[in-house]
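Reviewer 2 asked us to include a model.

Predict the structure of this chain.
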Amino acid sequence: MLGYPDSDWRRDKDDRKSTAAYVFMYGAALISWSSKKEDLVALSTCEAEYIAASLGACQGLWLRKMLKEMKIQKNEPICLLIDNNSAISLAKNPVDHGNNKHIDTRYHFIRDKVDKGKIKLISCKSEDNLADLLTKPLKKAKFEELRSKLMIKAD
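Predicted model (structure tokens):
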């Protein structure tokens, strides 16, 4: 199972809140997705992406539990493909980064899951992040490419 969390830092011009989204694929099948405005104003792209990764981690753990109960998936780490190396570094490094002290503690649970091997974070190029479809306006060709990768058919 692969998860693609993403965020669009401060895209809303009125309140400067970001939109967090995730997409989960099981094989070639889209099995879960979400897009919602974040509850707080992120002070950096790292924070916005870290929040999205934390939300994606929660969903991924729930999906893995459900698939395990259905005897479909074994107890292997959930792979999250993240297009922000600072967010990956923050989640993997237990040292408190001085520039990120403002990030709410509730989002740091992802560190615990990475340390315990429940979540595996993988860097991906921004243009390969399938959740871009849910977080930002795209040119028609890119929209159609991502829609196709998600196996969504147009009418």
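The mean pLDDT is 86. The helical segments are 45-69, 85-92, 109-115, 132-135, 140-149. We have added this to the supplementary material.
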